[in-house]
Amino acid sequence: MRERPPRRQSPRKDKTREAPPPVDRVQKILAAAGVGSRREVERWIREGRLQINGAVPALGTKLEPRDRITLDGRPVRLHRTAVRESHVLLFHRSPGDTLDLKAATSRAAEHLQLPRVSGRWLAIQPMPPVDGGLEILTSDGTWADRVSRGAHALTVDYVLRMRGPLNDDLVGEFRAATDCEGDTMAILQADPQYGAGFNHWLNVTVRDTRSAQVRHWWAARGIIVSRLMRVRFGPVHLTRELPRGHSRALLPGERSALINEIDAAKSADNGKPADAVTPAAAVKRA
Known about the structure:
CATH superfamily of the domain at 155-233: Pseudouridine synthase
Distance between the termini: 74 Å
Largest sheet: 9 strands, mixed
Oligomer: single chain
């Protein structure tokens, strides 16, 4: 009888299980998983939309590995690995394009042609649909929450196309403006570029001032802002190399400069010496 050849032993399957999610506050874990920012999760809890094991949790409730989470009755599946890669994008949005990211839970909105990520994209201080320009998107809810909380301290540049009798007196009045319809404004700079007809351009630098406030201020004086684009957000600049409707990864230097500028502003508010901040010009070009 012929001897049977020895059986090939199949390699043993690695039975090492992925690490369960860490035990931490529900809003922190869901934010890190890209389900939503911490503020969103807190709002979902207050509205009774988010439940753990069939009951609405209290703010700050800690998640256990076996807890079942639902949002509006639908299960929320978390990645079992404790560490997940986060992504940050600079997106050049065209005016009129709706930044509808809440409907995209497992992949980015297809109409915006954003890269697919686990979880969903979150927008940092998004512009109104009528406006456009620089948008910062991230899949990391914790990072989004940190930047959003400090965004009021950052300076922002807008480029406005004006329609109407713009003149130096109105520009001077705008520079000195401190409120619009009861909301405070901080206009740091306004440089006009007068055109031949009724169309003019105005380069504006603001702090803690929304684009809607700028529009309303000029509309109350008979000047229509026909186009408003955000071209700088803190140390991050929108350059001509990035066409409309396209995105690119935010460079590590840009991400660090953004966080450094926010931390420096917080230190200044608390009366502490601020650490060195990367100049905006150092990260102007990608």
